[in-house]
Structure to design on (112 residues):
Protein backbone atom coordinates (compact mmCIF):
# COMPACT_ATOMS: atom_id res chain seq x y z
CA UNK A 1 0.00 0.00 0.00
CA UNK A 2 1.08 3.56 -0.66
CA UNK A 3 0.02 6.97 0.55
CA UNK A 4 -0.11 9.70 -2.04
CA UNK A 5 0.07 13.31 -0.89
CA UNK A 6 -0.48 15.91 -3.56
CA UNK A 7 -0.23 19.66 -3.10
CA UNK A 8 -1.53 21.88 -5.89
CA UNK A 9 -3.39 25.09 -6.73
CA UNK A 10 -6.81 25.28 -5.03
CA UNK A 11 -8.81 25.96 -8.18
CA UNK A 12 -7.70 22.58 -9.61
CA UNK A 13 -9.39 20.53 -6.85
CA UNK A 14 -12.55 19.71 -8.80
CA UNK A 15 -10.49 18.61 -11.80
CA UNK A 16 -8.31 16.36 -9.63
CA UNK A 17 -11.31 14.76 -7.89
CA UNK A 18 -13.01 14.15 -11.24
CA UNK A 19 -9.83 12.52 -12.63
CA UNK A 20 -9.53 10.28 -9.58
CA UNK A 21 -13.17 9.24 -9.82
CA UNK A 22 -12.67 8.32 -13.49
CA UNK A 23 -9.94 5.79 -12.58
CA UNK A 24 -11.91 4.39 -9.65
CA UNK A 25 -9.98 5.91 -6.75
CA UNK A 26 -12.33 6.39 -3.80
CA UNK A 27 -11.76 7.99 -0.44
CA UNK A 28 -9.47 10.91 0.11
CA UNK A 29 -8.77 13.64 2.60
CA UNK A 30 -8.64 17.29 1.49
CA UNK A 31 -6.93 20.07 3.43
CA UNK A 32 -6.46 23.76 2.78
CA UNK A 33 -2.78 24.47 3.38
CA UNK A 34 -0.29 27.30 2.85
CA UNK A 35 3.27 27.11 1.64
CA UNK A 36 5.73 28.05 -1.03
CA UNK A 37 8.34 26.48 -3.25
CA UNK A 38 10.62 28.11 -5.78
CA UNK A 39 8.08 30.85 -6.50
CA UNK A 40 8.45 32.14 -2.91
CA UNK A 41 5.75 34.55 -1.90
CA UNK A 42 4.33 37.48 -3.76
CA UNK A 43 4.14 41.22 -3.10
CA UNK A 44 0.74 42.82 -2.58
CA UNK A 45 -0.51 46.27 -1.67
CA UNK A 46 -3.08 46.70 1.09
CA UNK A 47 -4.35 50.17 2.12
CA UNK A 48 -1.41 51.77 0.37
CA UNK A 49 1.23 49.66 2.12
CA UNK A 50 3.26 47.05 0.29
CA UNK A 51 3.80 43.72 2.01
CA UNK A 52 5.01 40.26 1.08
CA UNK A 53 2.72 37.26 1.30
CA UNK A 54 5.16 34.56 2.37
CA UNK A 55 2.81 31.60 2.11
CA UNK A 56 0.54 30.90 -0.82
CA UNK A 57 -2.79 29.06 -0.48
CA UNK A 58 -2.65 25.46 -1.71
CA UNK A 59 -4.83 22.37 -1.56
CA UNK A 60 -3.50 19.08 -0.22
CA UNK A 61 -5.07 15.70 -0.82
CA UNK A 62 -4.09 12.46 0.88
CA UNK A 63 -5.01 9.04 -0.52
CA UNK A 64 -4.04 5.52 0.59
CA UNK A 65 -4.24 3.03 -2.26
CA UNK A 66 -3.00 -0.43 -3.26
CA UNK A 67 0.49 -0.28 -4.77
CA UNK A 68 -0.85 -1.42 -8.14
CA UNK A 69 -2.78 1.86 -8.55
CA UNK A 70 0.11 4.24 -7.85
CA UNK A 71 1.18 4.92 -11.43
CA UNK A 72 -2.33 5.63 -12.73
CA UNK A 73 -3.20 7.74 -9.69
CA UNK A 74 -0.07 9.89 -9.97
CA UNK A 75 -0.70 10.38 -13.70
CA UNK A 76 -4.33 11.36 -13.10
CA UNK A 77 -3.36 13.93 -10.46
CA UNK A 78 -0.46 15.28 -12.52
CA UNK A 79 -2.59 15.76 -15.64
CA UNK A 80 -5.55 17.27 -13.76
CA UNK A 81 -3.50 19.70 -11.64
CA UNK A 82 -1.25 20.89 -14.48
CA UNK A 83 -1.39 24.56 -15.53
CA UNK A 84 2.15 24.90 -16.89
CA UNK A 85 2.87 27.79 -14.56
CA UNK A 86 5.17 27.99 -11.57
CA UNK A 87 3.58 26.70 -8.38
CA UNK A 88 1.65 23.80 -9.94
CA UNK A 89 2.63 21.67 -6.94
CA UNK A 90 4.14 18.33 -5.98
CA UNK A 91 3.08 14.70 -5.61
CA UNK A 92 4.66 12.54 -2.92
CA UNK A 93 4.41 8.74 -2.75
CA UNK A 94 5.05 7.17 0.67
CA UNK A 95 4.98 3.59 1.95
CA UNK A 96 2.14 2.56 4.28
CA UNK A 97 2.79 -0.22 6.78
CA UNK A 98 -0.80 -0.83 7.77
CA UNK A 99 -4.38 0.39 7.81
CA UNK A 100 -7.25 -0.50 10.14
CA UNK A 101 -10.87 0.43 9.57
CA UNK A 102 -12.17 1.50 12.98
CA UNK A 103 -15.82 0.47 12.45
CA UNK A 104 -15.22 -3.12 11.30
CA UNK A 105 -11.70 -3.91 12.40
CA UNK A 106 -10.71 -4.82 8.84
CA UNK A 107 -7.06 -4.31 8.13
CA UNK A 108 -4.67 -3.47 5.32
CA UNK A 109 -6.08 -3.60 1.75
CA UNK A 110 -9.44 -4.86 3.06
CA UNK A 111 -9.72 -1.61 5.02
CA UNK A 112 -9.27 0.56 1.96
Amino acid sequence: MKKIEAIFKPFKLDDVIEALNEIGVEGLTVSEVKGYGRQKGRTEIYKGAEYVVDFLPKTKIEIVIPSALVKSTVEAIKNAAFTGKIGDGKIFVLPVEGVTRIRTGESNENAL
Q: What stands out?
A: The mean pLDDT is 90. The first helix runs from residue 13 to 22.
